[in-house]
Amino acid sequence: MKTRHIVSTILLLAVFTLMTGCSSKPHELERGGLSAGDLMTSLLDRTMTTLGGVTSRISAEEALPALEGINEEFERLIDTKGDLSEQGQADLGDQAAKAMPGLKDNWRRVNMQTYGDILRPVMDDMIGNLTKLL
Questions:
Q1: 84 neighbors 26 (Cβ within 8 angstroms)
Q2: Other CB atoms closer than 10 Å to residue 62's CB: what's the count?
Q3: 126 with 47: CB under 8 angstroms?
Q4: How far apart, in whole angstroms, are the C-alpha atoms of residue 133 and residue 92?
């Protein structure tokens, strides 16, 4: 009877140890109810929508605080990227790689206008930050 309890206890401890030691890093992190991948998608969508609405000097000035806020969120995502599993990091890199051409095209369209200089610093930083996620 004692042997049975000892064996059961050892097996339970072994299973528990295996379960807790399977992965030291999560595939996804959550912030504000969003996974890292969902957050990345949201940031990219907001960036494209904001840039798409820039059609004048006034709209560029209005878009600047929103783009600065988005860029700060990209920086926080970069800071937490190391906490993801290798697969989670690869997924973020894939999303960044897919988004980069569209982001650069939208930015090129805005930058060619006389009001592009308003957004140039934040967009250069944002593209640099997206590159860090590749």
A1: yes
A2: 14
A3: yes
A4: 7
Tokens in use for 27? 């595939």
- DSSP-based three-state secondary structure for 56: coil
- The Cα-based distances of 35 to 7, 24, 30 in angstroms read 40, 17, 4
Residue with tokens 């006034």: 58
- Give this prediction's pTM: 0.76
Structural contact between residues 30 and 82, judged by C-beta atoms closer than 8 angstroms: no
- How far apart CA 83 and CA 120 sit, in angstroms, is 31
Q: Are 57 and 115 in contact (CB under 8 A)?
A: yes
For residues 102 and 127, the answer to whether their CB atoms sit within 8 Å is: no
Domain positions in the chain are 2-132
Residue segments in the chain with a per-residue pLDDT below the cut of 70: 1-34
pLDDT in tens, 32-42: 556 888 889 99
Strand, helix or coil for residue 85: coil
Distances in Å between the Cα of 67 and the Cα atoms of 51, 59, 128 are: 8, 12, 14
H helices of the chain, where?
A: 2-20, 36-52, 57-81, 86-111, 116-132
